[in-house]
Amino acid sequence: DYMEYSTDALAQAAYVSNGSLLSNADIDDEDMADITDWIDDDEAPGESTQVTFDGQSCMKLDSGSPVGGSGFRSQDIGTFGNSTVFSFRIYHSALGTLANTDAFLLNIYEGSMRFLIALGTDGIYVYDGTSYVLIDDTLVQTGVWQEWTFIVDWVAQTVNIYLNGVLKYSNVDCSSANTTTEGMVYLTQRGATNINRITYIDWFKAGSATLGGLDVFSESTIKTQGSYSLKGVAAITDSLNKTLTRTLTS
User: What gap in Å lies between CA 68 and CA 30, rounded to an integer?
Assistant: First the structure.
């Protein structure tokens, strides 16, 4: 086995880390125990509330009944650098498709551009300035907690997408010119076609870097045989006793 992987995603899939890749939260660290610092922008009959769900303090976004509403909160979390890492833990109790305008939306503004994603039962979409682009129609799930991390490069206007600590897609185009105030974050659960589309957010983090255990990459620089080599990067503060494992089938 040469340990060759042509992409980081393949290396991440083969060698699983027991450390979780997250934002270091040096810009914003929201545990949702109190959401009064978020502006209530609900569109009737939608409602956003602070609740305890599945034993966790959460922000609940409910599009309400009848159709046409959205649970909607916003906050100015400050300034960003050239790259920002956003992480959140989310549970979709009742979700719908982006096509039906029943998806969950995350809008984040940098001052000159916008990072916009949609999570729906028809997949995860990234807005490229012209339209929503379907990235994957299998990743978004309802009825389970999912931990998403997005590393946004504001200069290159691309994003790397992680789900539950594993890199799924890299260098995805997210270029969307917009002059809304830097630092504005919008969390929205819409319900234009179906009533009571409900999403729970356990926590939200924004930071200048990642805080993980062991991050796995594939590179073509250091190797002794073949074209690629496996690279493991240990975080300074959270790598103690973390492991990388691969299960061989035979």
Answer: 28
Tens digits of per-residue pLDDT, 131-162?
999 999 999 999 999 999 999 999 999 999 99
**Chain-wide mean pLDDT for the chain?**
90
Are 79 and 157 in contact, with CB atoms under 8 Å apart?
no
Are 102 and 193 within 8 A, CB to CB? yes
Q: How far apart are CA 190 and CA 199, in angstroms?
A: 10
Measured distance CA(80)–CA(231) in Å, rounded? 28
* Tokens found for residue 114: 């916008």
Characterize 119-149 residue by residue with b for buried, 16 or more Cβ atoms within 10 angstroms of its Cβ, and e for exposed. Answer: bbbbbbbbbeeeebeebeeebbeeeeebbbb
**Which structure tokens are listed for 242?**
């973390």
